[in-house]
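step 4 of 6: structure.
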Amino acid sequence: MRNILGANDDIAAQNRKVFAEHGVIVMNLMGSPGSGKTTLLEQTLARFADKIKIVVIEGDLFTAKDAERIEKSGVDVIQINTAGGCHLDAPMIQKVCASLDLDALDLIIVENVGNLVCPAEFDLGENFKAVVLSITEGDDKPLKYPLIFKESEAVLLNKVDLLPFTNFNLESARNDLTTLHPTIKIFETSCTTGAGLETWCAWLLKKLEAR
Amino acid sequence: MHEATLAENILDIALDAAEKNHATKILKIGLTLGEMTGVEVEALTLSFDVLKKDTPADCAELVVKRVPISAACNKCGKTFRLERYNFFCPECDGILILRSGRELLVEFVDCE
């Protein structure tokens, strides 16, 4: 009997060991295309600017558009193009991390390829996963894509400034998320108004302090 | 869409097993797939059928067994089969911890 993802999981375990040895925390950030992952990152990085040393790894099918946006915030960014691949995997992360001075880093944020299905299956060796779900995607998504929400330690209900213009039922979404994953941490955020961002960043900082 | 990656891995595992057993032809590959994995069996079979051409698995068939989601309470210890994704214990105020449903396994490789 062999694990179909065994080869990936073995390398993920190696990555996890290396990250722990160098005392760097790694977050795997996932979510649909357009959910606001990159904007959330820009806002998060702006709040962390001088406090901690961060590198961002950007997963994208073909372009460097997101990496260029992150670069403007003055944070080092590494681009991985999956050439059509729908997710990042552990060997890709291992390869790019080999060129990093991990001892000098506090946090690596991996922005996965926009997708609610495939990234959830592939362990990268991260400390924790977080998923961004935007209001315009609909409140039914947690139960339609349960795995990604089950695997994530935190979920960001993003673009809450758009709530008045949609039929998104916040209570129902929260209820489904908690039923599926009783200990999941739920943040309500808007990168337009700034709502919830301080709470999110404070939580992230706490994860670093727990090292 | 990660079914293509999974199909590639399944083929690698099967070819490896065949080689170790000095077999030249793979007949059947048994898979165990949990209900809480994002795998479309149809897409998986389609990818596998493309990849297997011109390999010893040319005629191999995928036999899929699905595993239901089950979870055990962290307080009362009882195990439940989950139909909907409700991870609160129906019998006490505990939380259910996933026990099965995340399997992605090659169970057996039949070759000759």
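step 5 of 6: annotate
 - The CA atoms of residues 70 and 132 of chain A lie 17 Å apart.
 - Chain A has one domain: 6-209.
step 6 of 6: archive
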